[in-house]
Amino acid sequence: MKSLRLILSNPRYFGPAWVFASLNILFGTWAIYIPTVKEKLGIDKADLGIALFFLSLGVFTVFPIAAKIINRIGVGRATSYGIWCSGLCALLPLLVPDYYALMASLFLFGASNGFTDIAMNSLVTEIEKEDEQKFMSAAHGFYSLGGVLAGLGIFLIVGLGNPPLHMFFAVVLVLVVNLIFFKKYVHIKAAPVDKEPFSLKLFKPLLILGIISFIAMANEGAIVDWSGLYLKEISLAPETLWGAGFLGFQITMTLGRFLGDVISTRIGSVKIVTLGAIITIVGYVLVLTTGTYLSIIGFALSGLGFSVMVPELFRIGGKVNGIDSSQGVAFIAGLGYTGFLLAPPILGFIAKSSSLITCFIILLSSVILILVATSVLKRKGAHA
Fold this sequence. Notes:
Blueprint: H1 2-9, H2 11-32, H3 34-41, H4 45-73, H5 75-91, H6 99-131, H7 136-152, H8 155-160, H9 163-181, H10 200-233, H11 244-267, H12 269-287, H13 292-307, H14 309-317, H15 325-353, H16 356-380
Helix pairs in contact: 1-2, 2-5, 2-6, 2-7, 2-9, 4-5, 4-6, 4-15, 5-6, 5-9, 6-15, 7-11, 7-14, 10-11, 10-13, 10-14, 10-15, 10-16, 11-12, 11-13, 12-13, 12-14, 12-16, 14-15, 15-16
């Protein structure tokens, strides 16, 4: 909790952490109104799926160029510009008059979110290096907290009855707080790096981190999308408990991220990723017992295990020798988001042809691969 106290007591740390929360407040508020937009535009599920693909396309389009832009204007200024663009673009999908405008607006929203994601993680990496303080995990905890705040915003729906107005209030909240605190970080630039010519030796640790990120975020996406159905169809849980696995996963994910920095300080980034993998394996074993309550506990343990992985991967990736922090973060984020987006539909195909139990056996096996990867990182002497 030291990093959480640090964030809450020092504007230099609260400013970047609020950007993390802001991004999920905006995205979470949009997600609430997806069914409303579908009905308003008179589109079917297939059309909606294509439109949402443009959101992902925007994220992936910006990844290859984000690092160069961030390095040119500075990580602090890039983070500030990014969250302003995300706030303005968040309004567009709820205001569009037709389907094609929806696709265009979601592309812009995805691109601005992807840029902000890389900028804010690079910013935290640079502040950690400057101040020799760890708060990356707690900053990701604020991202999870932003999702909770967006969820609580659903209570505004009944009173307002106006999705664009609801989003406008969310945007105002996000941008006003950022306006107050952006002066604390806007001047920060990435420390100069002695770049080395490309070589497999240089790229290998970054590739390993990217693979771990792919697996970790693929698992996160799978649990978010499939835990409820698993409890319903495999564990035969009562309807009141169908969402308990997801809820437990989100709660432990948030708590784990607030506790992660202090543990990372004591044992190091690579070891905490290893510990997270072990906890997740235990969680999946409980899920595979198929018992309702054991499965719910298993999903909660998985959330605790995954909570520390992605923040630590960004932290390690931002310190790879010979590579700018923004480039390391962009590569790891790119592979991670690929896993997050691809895993649920792939597992859906496997579940249809086999079963959900097979899906979770595959997920368990993938986490065992993370243990193998962390052992390689230890031998390579990855920075903690």
